[in-house]
What we know:
Layout: E1 2-3, H1 9-17, E2 22-27, E3 35-36, H2 38-45, E4 53-58, H3 63-73, E5 77-80, H4 85-94, E6 99-105, H5 110-121, E7 124-128, H6 144-154, E8 159-161, H7 170-177, E9 181-184, E10 189-191, E11 194-195, H8 197-210
Parallel strand pairs: 1-2, 1-9, 2-3, 2-4, 4-5, 5-6, 6-7, 7-8, 8-9
Antiparallel strand pairs: 10-11
Helix pairs in contact: 5-6, 7-8
Amino acid sequence: MKICGLMRSFDVAAAAAYGADAFGFVLASPSSRRNLSLARARKLEKYVPVFGTKVAVTSSRDARTLRRICERVHPDALQLHQCDNSAIGMLRRKHPEVELILATRVRGKESISEARVASRYSDAVLADSLGVDGMGGTGRTNDWNLSASIRDEIFPHPLILAGGLTSANVRMAISKVRPHAVDVSSGVETRVGMKDPVKIREFIRIAKESKT
């Protein structure tokens, strides 16, 4: 259960209070309206609980930028929305402690083969409705039947489901796809970058009930 696109300490604290497992911060992604500086992300990380997973989300494929994120922000996981094999190799060598999540755009049958390849180089695959900039947070759901096929193709490799999830549809999404985890950003916002604590609470409650 990941709350992504966090930009305010109040929202990080709310996600923690209601039981989020992972906390996503968008970095080095200037096209995203939820993009943060590394310094800001470091300040927000202080509100993540001790057993919470800190996830740096980025569209950058530049090896030096990725190393700088790992060295300055110290994330537990790095969510990559641009797959570059040389950068992935560098991260595995220089930062083996950081888990890698590779995003796959759910758009057609080719997504299944792309996810299969991503599963070879990652610790988890993210199935998302990515925008033209390669980032999520679009508020659009994807084809859950296709996401379920991706899940079956890469199983038991973990699949994280994202894309247009809200408290109104997350139960059905979990039932259809049976993902390892779900990821939400715009579905718990009042406007871009501003989370709603009530929406966070309801989303987490329903998602966790649906996995029992």
